[in-house]
Amino acid sequence: MKLLNYEFEKIKNAEKRNYIFQLVRNRTLSSIYHSHDFYEVVYFLQGEATHLLNEKSYCCTANLMVLLRPNDRHCFTNQSDDVVLFSLSVRREEFEAIADIYGKDFFNQIIRSDNPFFCEHCSLLNYSLFDYENMSANMKEYDCKFLLSCILHYCIKHNELKSAIPSSLSFAINEIKKIENLHEGIESMVRLSNYSQTHLARMMKKYFNTTPKHYINELRLQKAYDCIILTQKSLELISEELGFNSYSHFNKIFKERFSVTPASLRKKKKIWTV
Question: DSSP secondary structure string, 207-260?
């Protein structure tokens, strides 16, 4: 199947503008796997959806921002009825000209990284853009440029915070994503970090505002989601490999998390493959 690629010039009302701002509510997000030739910032105000991005799935909830780069491949599914988000699409030349002000490190660490850039629990909107359609064309351009500058500044600060994470915790966070470590669970994270369980809990709260148990369960569910749609492994094997207590337990919490059973998701696999 040919991957759809959207061009900035073909966005409705793009004309000669550098920015397209959209406030999205009461609308189904695109479930068609696609890419585009421009940058896009998506910021969830409320609700949740599953985001398939470059063959990996991520859960998007309120106050989560994702920076999509040209040629990133993505689509959405499992969208809740109350989703509200804003999308800021920016011409590639305009985005990179502004981003260049922040230096080469910004490009290397965020824009040119192999990994997508996400910010959780962020608060970007310190002023309202909800009267956007009533602004003049010049005000729209100015406000969007200002918003983009705020976003890029936030990205850098967020990246600096991630850099401040102790190396032992950072190592554990990276290694726990491997299936064999996820299977072992919290014991594996304690061993990898060389922390006591109490100290690990304290550090996870400080740097990630979550508990080790919740973090590992979320990783297991996200990894299970990926395995279901991207591999031919049986659902029982996926459940066992990732360390779920039983298949019935896996089935129950998976449905609670994604509003779909593993079996039902597997049947929809052809929607996701390209």
Answer: HHSS-HHHHHHHHHHHHHHHHHHH----HHHHHHHTT-S-HHHHHHHHHHHHSS
